[in-house]
Amino acid sequence: MIDLAIIGGGPAGLSAGLYATRGGLKNVVMFEMGMPGGQITGSSEMENYPGVSTVMDGMSFMAPWQEQCFRFGLKHEMKNVARVSKNSDESFSIFLDDGGEIRAKAVIVCTGSEPRRAGFKGENEFFGRGVSTCATCDGFFYKNKEVAVLGGGDTALEEAIYLANIVSKVYLIHRRDGFRAAPITVEKAKKNEKIEFITNAVVDEVYGDQSGVTGVKVKFKNGDIRDLKVPGIFTFVGLNVRNSVIKDENGNFICETTQSGQIKVDLKMQTSLKGLYAAGDIRQDAPKQVVSAAGDGAVAALSAMSYIESLK
Q1: 159: Cβ–Cβ under 8 A, 6 or more apart, which residues?
Q2: Which SS3 state, helix, strand or coil, does residue 102 take?
Q3: Would you say 205 and 217 are in contact if contact means Cβ atoms under 8 Å apart?
Q4: Residue 158 phi, psi dihedral angles, 5° rounding
Q5: Residue 255 lies in a domain
Q6: CA 109 → CA 137, 167, 222, distances in Å?
Q7: Where is the signal peptide (predicted)?
């Protein structure tokens, strides 16, 4: 049996692993299928982490986290966790996709979130063939071409600004007049001559052929349609939490969650199930910022260490 299982390898999971192992736990395992780093590794610009004055992309920003967190003995298992359950002896069973089972004294869930689909016609058909949720990943394919960006938050505007350095023009589509993004980001985007704002409008349809997207139809509130002849659209319309690991075999949550599926926690990141903690985007009212996720991970690790000590 391991001391602590950490599910997820983003900022919350890595910070939890760092604090747990540096704090003295000897058998801590982080389950993450790919390379650790989380969703922020797909970001084109990271400039608001306290103490880091250099603006860099998410991949570069997260690279030193791995080295630091593994230095104190954190183990990384490149395996996918299917679900977690609590046993009669107060331990937890970690069920893996490959059929394996690992027992742990405590668990921290840091599975984060994933980009939400916008729901327009053609989105699923052309996803990966002109419809993308990662400007850093796919922006280069549209060098000197025109593209569309859908969304009104910080991510949408930041990625529009990033794409403007690569493409010839960016059509920024938002359903309202106002934006949820920080005023400084909105101002920066408005000053960019390559970005055209299309507000009070939604994407009605994305169409194309066997080679991929060839156009985007934008529908305004008055019913008018504008046809943008672009080969790609980037959508940034929010996130869905990855909460499948806290569902039992019948699909019921093993701890309390909000109506939207986020895990309810107290100030110690403790869930309603003793010994089970949640950190980062998965938890209730998460601000979805790297600095907050890192703080959550540290708090969850310290709480889990106290819990494990109480078992002795």
Answers
A1: 44, 135, 136, 149, 234, 236
A2: strand
A3: yes
A4: -65, -40
A5: yes
A6: 27, 39, 45
A7: none
Q: At what angle do helices 11-22 and 290-311 cross, to 10 degrees?
A: 40
pLDDT in tens, 266-282: 999 999 999 999 999 99
For the question of residue 134 being annotated catalytic, the response is yes
Within 8 A by CB and 6+ apart from 127, the residues are: none
Domain extent for 300: 2-115+239-311
Let me know whether 110 and 259 are in one domain. Answer: yes
Q: Could you report the per-residue pLDDT of 74-95, keeping only the tens digit for each?
A: 999 999 999 999 999 999 999 9
2-7 and 101-109 beta bridge pairing: parallel
Query: Quick one: CA torsion of 16, 94, 97, 79, rounded to 10 degrees?
Result: 30
Q: With respect to residue 46, please indicate whether it lies within any of the assigned structural domains.
A: yes
Q: Which residue of the set 3, 69, 110, 138 is catalytic?
A: 138
CB 77 within 8 A of CB 8: no
Q: Can you give the pTM of this predicted structure?
A: 0.81
